[in-house]
Amino acid sequence: MEFLSRPHSIRISEVTCDSFRIGWAAEPGDAGRATHYFIDLSRKEARDPNRFKHKDVPTKLVTKAVPLPMTVRGHWFLSPRTEYSVAVQTAVKQPDGEYLVSEWSEVIEFCTGDYSRAHLQQLQLKAGSIAGRLRPFSVFYRNQNQEYFQHVRLQCGGVMPPVLKDSSGSVGSPINGALSGVFFSCNTEFDTGLPPNDSPYGAARFQIPAGRLFSRDTRLYFGDFYCMYTPYHYVVLVLAPSGSQGDCFCQDRLPELDPAHNPFLTRTQQEGAEPVYSHAHDVILEVVFAAPVSLAHGMLGEISGHMLMSQTTANAKKDPSCKTCNISVGR
């Protein structure tokens, strides 16, 4: 009985958020005999699985033999920033339709990548289509508890330090777990034009004039678009001082927005007049300022509304089934 040698020396290369290239070695006499490849691709068990996410099952791909390395692509079984294990078999299709197959190769592990700038531009277009009209605002605000601001005063010299972006939103967003910043809101109430009295983060509120963060010396980037199994959609934007470490990070990874012409957050100015700042009304903006912010540049106060803890986005997972905020590359 004939046998095929076991594939070995598996090589994974050119990994993206929804594709990779794979190659391997075989005995010289078998390299040209194979008519098909079987690829067993399995997602590694997550340490903190998202209980809402669609379950992944081992996926065996069958493909006709092609020159190696070959590209494996498919958003229906590959997600960004996800660890996978892969093994391969080679096979020869017999005249009776059955396959003569090799043993499985060794198992190789790899991790898919972040969304590319092109993928983020797709998200940006989707977000822009529902952003709604622009409304004026004058301050960015940050809600926290009093203990946080007391810590900033006593331990940080009155300067809010950047903290690492958590894993909330799209799994493939390049800023998750990689970009540090101070997080602000700017949405206003429709009837008053003022920041809302409610907050999921705490009763203390720091307000800072919009021009302090969004000036000619800062650059604006699109970071993410997501929802959390609710009707509300969130857009994450990054404001980075030009030339800063955060700016350099964003230049390589995120789409840059024109401060005067975009559907989310604008700064416009007529000759001889003060700048006018506007925010999108129909999405909730999360603004990451990629540098420290001094309390001396703003005002600290308290809000009187409810603490809407159900609206917190801390480590919130994106709804993978939402057709409004997902694109066809992973979830």
Automatic annotation (TrEMBL):
Enumerate the CDD domains for this protein.
Answer: FN3
Descriptive protein name:
Phytanoyl-CoA hydroxylase-interacting protein
Tell me the superkingdom of the source: Eukaryota
| Known partners and oligomeric status | Interacts with PHYH and ADGRB1.
Q: What does this protein do?
A: Its interaction with PHYH suggests a role in the development of the central system.
Organism listed in the record: Acipenser oxyrinchus oxyrinchus
**Family the UniProt entry places it in:** Belongs to the PHYHIP family.
Give the record's keywords alphabetically: Glycoprotein
- Write out the GO cellular component annotations: cytoplasm
Q: Which PANTHER family match?
A: PHYTANOYL-COA HYDROXYLASE-INTERACTING PROTEIN, PROTEIN CBG15099
Q: Which residues form the Fibronectin type-III domain?
A: 6-115
